[in-house]
Design brief:
The termini are close together. Helices cover 43% and strands 14% of the residues. Strand 2, helix 4 and strand 3 form a beta-alpha-beta unit. By secondary structure, it is α/β, with parallel strands linked by helices.
């Protein structure tokens, strides 16, 4: 992208431009997104391209008692085949899986080409995505493949001021130990540190979980702490990413809750997820970290059991949108700087 092209794309407004996809149109995504768009503050925060499904939006607006989103000076709704597709609510199927993948492709392309600053989407259903053709283990890897990105990436969970990363993710618990390495621990520490710095934390305080009960009890309950995790922390420090630990996983989040850490690196999916969801299930955000574009989504799922009841909580979606605005602004600044 030339500097002139970048200036032309970003000179219209100082607000970030967010590509906003509803996620799984069979879930609560349409409901929480019509609520978000009905909030007058949303228009003040960003310009939005809404990648949606109109039948689902119409049902969602009716259930929430809010106006149906329409195009305006800050909101555009592109015409695409999925816009009017009929999708069965609260059901995992190929149709909604295809919709998810097609809509995300549009959002990814917008941000990658400079037409938007960040991608934010409603909750997804991995089962539907696989029926729709996803070959990867999760959306993180799908997004990486779509962007042709070969570098390091991983999910971050953001809960107010606490960010959580993990060394391993969507793999069986029985495979966790064999998939750990000092290099992967250091990589997660570095990636989380850089993400926090991008979010405005100049010198992040990072804590690292142990793997075994009581942090291995000096090797009595497992040796991964001394054999893998501690060397990983030392390696990260040598690369300029200091962190503390390892600490027992059953107490480290108490320290984080009390403000001792800005970020926690866990060893596997549920080790961090259970703690953060207990601390704030309805407010958490997932960041697809390490990718060349900013991507955020609520940390909760599609909640099929309450679709159409108008009771889905919207705080996590609003938080995901706000974080996309912050990250999108930073991404725009980097784009403009690199284009000079």
């Amino acid at each position: 992208m030339t500097s002139e092209t970048a200036r032309q794309q970003f000179a219209v407004t100082d607000k970030p431009h967010i590509a906003l996809a509803v996620g799984d149109a069979a879930g609560i995504g349409p409901e929480i997104i019509v609520t978000l768009l009905a909030d007058p503050l949303t228009a003040r925060k960003a310009n939005v391209t809404l990648i949606a499904n109109m039948p689902a939006l119409e049902a969602a607006a009716k259930s929430r008692g809010v106006p149906l989103p329409t195009e305006s000076d800050w909101l555009s709704i592109p015409q695409w085949p999925g816009l009017h597709r009929v999708i069965t609510p609260a059901k995992v199927g190929e149709e909604n899986g295809l919709f998810i993948l097609e809509s995300l492709k549009i959002g990814v392309a917008m941000v990658a080409s400079g037409q938007a600053d960040a991608l934010c989407f409603g909750p997804l259903n991995k089962g539907a995505m696989r029926l729709g053709g996803m070959q990867q283990e999760d959306e993180m890897r799908w997004l990486s493949n779509e962007l042709n990105y070969k570098g390091v990436c991983g999910e971050f969970n953001v809960l107010d001021k606490l960010w959580t990363a993990r060394v391993t993710s969507h793999i069986p618990l029985s495979a966790v130990s064999s998939q750990l390495s000092a290099e992967k621990v250091a990589r997660a520490i570095g990636m989380l540190t850089r993400a926090l710095q991008d979010a405005g934390v100049a010198q992040p305080k990072i804590g690292v979980c142990g793997l075994n009960p009581h942090n291995g009890d000096n090797g009595n309950y497992g040796d991964e702490e001394g054999r893998i995790i501690t060397p990983g922390i030392e390696l990260a420090a040598s690369q300029g990413y200091p962190a503390e630990g390892p600490f027992p996983a059953d107490t480290i989040f108490l320290r984080a809750r009390d403000g001792q850490f800005d970020g926690i690196v866990s060893m596997y999916h549920d080790q961090g997820q259970i703690a953060t969801k207990m601390m704030g299930f309805d407010i958490g955000v997932t960041v697809q970290g390490g990718l060349p574009i900013p991507v955020t989504t609520p940390a909760h799922g599609t909640a099929y059991e309450i679709v159409g009841k108008g009771i889905a909580k919207t705080t996590a979606m609003a938080n995901a949108f706000d974080l996309a605005c912050r990250m999108g602004t930073g991404h725009r600044q980097k784009t403009l700087s690199s284009a000079k």
